[in-house]
Every structure is written in C-alpha cells, then in structure tokens.
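User: What would this chain look like folded?
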Amino acid sequence: MTLTIGQLAAAAGVNLETVRYYERIKLMPPPARTAGGYRAYERAHICRLAFIRRARELGFSIEQIRALLALAEQSRASCADVREIARTHLNEVRAKLADLARLEGILAETISRCSGDSAPPCPVLNMLAT
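Assistant: Here's the prediction, encoded as structure tokens.
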C-alpha cells in the first residue's frame, strides 16, 4: 500500500505543508518515488508522522522529538534516556505554568482597576505602554 503526500497528511491528521517541513528538517525519512517522480509513502510513514504530531501537541521541541525518535528504534531503546527527556520537558511546562499564573495575576489586577469608562486614563493601556 502506498500513499500520496495528501493521503499521508490526512491519515496522520496534519497539513500537507507540515509533511514537507518535517521532510526538509529530516524528521521524516524520504519516501520512495514513483516512476513519475511522485512521493510514495508507506504505513510506517503514517506511524512516524502521528508520533511526531502527538509529541508536538504535548509541546516537545523538534530536537526533543528527534531524540525520542532515535530512542524509539529497537536497537537504541532506553527508557532512562526517554525519561530524562520527558523530565526536562515537564520542568519546562511547569516553568511556563508559573509564568502564566504570574501573567494572570497581573492582568486580573490591572483589569480590576479599570473602571470601564470611556475617558482615560485606562490602567490596561497604561500597563501596556510601560
């Protein structure tokens, strides 16, 4: 069974340009080509692309995904290495959550000082201007 790039993108739930991008940065292996020069994808391409999509949805960086893909190969599988990548990512997520919580507090405080009148001064605009 071979697939066109459009069929692959649809099967993995990504945009066609996403497939091309992942090929350019070598996250996706190059597919075989038909006699006419068209890409001919296999089932393994769907699985790999779905893996990448899920990892991106979880916020893993391209380099983290590259490392995870390498570790997913049978001969290189290392749960300890995968755990370390996931732990690093978890710490990044927690730092982002802390930043968002601080941002939420700043915005809530600023909005609470805004009277909603049509005349200046506006605390929200003042905060953004500083």
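The mean pLDDT is 91. If you want, I can go into more detail on any region.
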